[in-house]
Amino acid sequence: MSDDQVRSTSGYFSPLAISKYSLLSTYKRDGTPVATPVNVVVSGDVAYFRTWNTSGKAKRLRHTSRVELQACGPGGKPKGGAKVAAVASLLQGGASQEAATALARQHPLLHRHIVPRLHRLRGWTTQQYRLDAPPERHSGLSELA
Predict the structure, then answer these.
(1) What is the DSSP letter of 78?
(2) Distance CA 41, CA 22 (A)
(3) Average pLDDT over the chain, rounded to whole?
(4) Residue 67 confidence (pLDDT) above 70
(5) Does domain 14-138 have CATH number 1.10.8.60?
(6) For position 123, what pLDDT does the model report?
(7) pLDDT digits (tens, 9 = 90+) for 28-51
(8) Residues 72, 78 contacting (CB under 8 angstroms)
(9) Could you tell me the pTM of the whole model?
(10) What totals of helices (H) and strands (E) does the chain contain, helices first?
């Protein structure tokens, strides 16, 4: 992933590229959304974020990969703008390392230094996730409003 691809202003996730933070909504088993601010790296029609293995986000994503995102401030207050539906998938190996590198490049202090050290100190495993447009979008069907 080149520097030109990071924070792309075109593509499916372009509404998120304008903000340093995105409000990520994951879903409980009963369908209740839980929103959390995360840093997202946008690269055209895909985006990436990270969390640790025991976080609530990671637990919810193990059973429901459907998510929704919206640009927000650091405290999670939405900035307005479009909500973007997506499907999250846990990355492994080289793909995970590439996502981690892109996050560190875009958010150097937080994702190159603070997050990795904090996760190591706490004994957490850092996980990178890839976000893709939902299958409905790829099949040409319109998204629900």
Answers:
(1) B
(2) 10
(3) 84
(4) yes
(5) no
(6) 79
(7) 999 999 999 999 999 888 999 999
(8) yes
(9) 0.81
(10) 5, 7
Residue pair 119/52 in contact (Cβ under 8 Å)? The answer is yes
> What residues form DSSP beta bridges with 127?
51
Please tell me the distance from the alpha carbon of residue 134 to that of residue 79, in angstroms, as a whole number. Answer: 23
Is residue 144 over pLDDT 80? no
Contacts of 118 (CB under 8 A, 6+ apart): 124
Closest C-alpha among 72, 57, 75, 66 to residue 127: 57
Q: Which residue has the higher pLDDT, 90 or 112?
A: 90
Query: What residue type is assigned to position 16 of the chain?
Result: L
Residue pair 22/40 in contact by the 8 Å Cβ criterion: yes
Cross-strand pairs, 13: none
Identify whether the C-beta of residue 4 lies closer than 8 Å to the C-beta of residue 53: no
